[in-house]
């Protein structure tokens, strides 16, 4: 497909379980972002990659959250020892290289994580 | 502390009329503003943006106005159509758009026939 693809669409995890969420960005997109969207809230920034380099991880809420993009394309967000407060929709977005600094990001459909 | 605020959780507008969605921000370093539209079970889709050097940007039925002194922007949709019913997020960036965005909580726009 031509858009950002995320899998799985839905994930139910028992508290304490580790989860891995996958993002396939649009081909050729250099920048990749992860956001967390809690119910009734706007998306909140988690981390940002430029190619394989993680340039900003200031939004990761704890050291249980880890993201990687080893080859500069597909990215994985891993959450260890999930807690109930981790329940949210996790959105991935990518944006192309651009000579203009102002480039909108294209979002995937998100992964809805429910921790029970 | 919310840096981007959308104070109206919902807005109901009659089809054919103008919809005005408002957004306020507190961070004076923001230099690029975007509006995203979101349908249920889908990711946000980009709608329109504006740089801080401008005060207006228009794209078809959608116009965004920026008032830097008031730290306020608004999205105007005219005429409103049933397909415009969605949640609208205001977002801002202080890195020219290439860095992470700061989003508001969203406004649910309902277009009534």
Description:
- The complex is a heterodimer of chains A (116) and B (113).
- Chain A is mainly β.
- In chain A, 0% of the residues lie in helices and 47% in strands.
- In chain A, the strands form 2 sheets. In chain A, strands 2, 4, 5, 6, 9, 10 and 11 form a 7-stranded mixed beta sheet that branches. In chain A, strands 1-3-8-7 form a 4-stranded antiparallel beta sheet, with no helix packed on it.
- The mean pLDDT of chain A is 93.
- With 113 residues, chain B is mainly beta.
- Helices cover 0% and strands 53% of the residues of chain B.
- Chain B is built from no helices and 11 strands.
- In chain B, the strands form 2 sheets. In chain B, strands 2, 4, 5, 9, 10 and 11 form a 6-stranded mixed beta sheet that branches. Chain B has a 5-stranded antiparallel beta sheet with strand order 1-3-8-7-6, with no helix packed on it.
- The termini of chain B are far apart.
- The mean pLDDT of chain B is 94.
- Chains A and B meet through strand 4, strand 5, strand 9 and strand 10 of A and strand 4, strand 5 and strand 10 of B.
Give the low-confidence spans of chain B. none
**Gap between N and C termini of chain A:** 32 Å
- Biggest interface: chains and residue counts? A-B, 28 and 27 residues
Query: How many β-strand stretches of chain A?
Result: 11
Mass-distribution shape of chain B? globular
Quote the average pLDDT of chain A: 93
Number of contiguous helices of chain A: 0
Radius of gyration of chain B: 13 Å
Helix content of chain B: under 10%
Tell me the span between the first and last alpha carbons of chain B: 37 Å
Cα-based radius of gyration of chain A, to the nearest Å: 14 Å
Quaternary assembly: heterodimer
The coarse overall form of chain A would be globular
Which structural class matches the secondary elements of chain A?
mainly beta
| Annotation field: number of helices of chain B | 0
* Largest β-sheet summary of chain B: 6 strands, mixed
Give the integer mean of the pLDDT values of chain B: 94
Strand-residue proportion of chain A: over 45%
Number of strands of chain B: 11
């Amino acid at each position: 497909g031509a858009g950002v693809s995320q899998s799985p669409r839905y994930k139910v995890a028992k508290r304490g379980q580790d989860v891995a969420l996958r993002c396939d960005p649009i081909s050729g997109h250099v920048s990749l972002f992860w956001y967390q969207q809690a119910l009734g809230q706007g998306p909140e920034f988690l981390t940002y990659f430029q190619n394989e380099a993680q340039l900003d991880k200031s939004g990761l809420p704890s050291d249980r959250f880890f993201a990687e993009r080893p080859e500069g394309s597909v990215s994985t967000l891993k959450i260890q020892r999930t807690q109930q407060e981790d329940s949210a929709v996790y959105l991935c977005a990518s944006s192309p290289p651009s000579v203009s600094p102002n480039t909108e990001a294209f979002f995937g459909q998100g992964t809805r994580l429910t921790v029970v | 502390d919310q840096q981007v605020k959308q104070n109206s959780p919902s807005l109901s507008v009659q089809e054919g009329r103008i919809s005005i969605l408002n957004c306020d921000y507190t961070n004076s370093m923001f230099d690029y503003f975007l509006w995203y539209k979101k349908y249920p079970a889908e990711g946000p889709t980009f709608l329109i943006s504006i740089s801080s050097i401008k005060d207006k940007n228009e794209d078809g039925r959608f116009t965004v106005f920026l008032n830097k002194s008031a730290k306020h922007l608004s999205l105007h949709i005219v005429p409103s159509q049933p397909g415009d019913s969605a949640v609208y997020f205001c977002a801002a960036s202080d890195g020219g758009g290439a860095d992470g965005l700061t989003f508001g909580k969203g406004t649910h726009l309902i277009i009534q026939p």
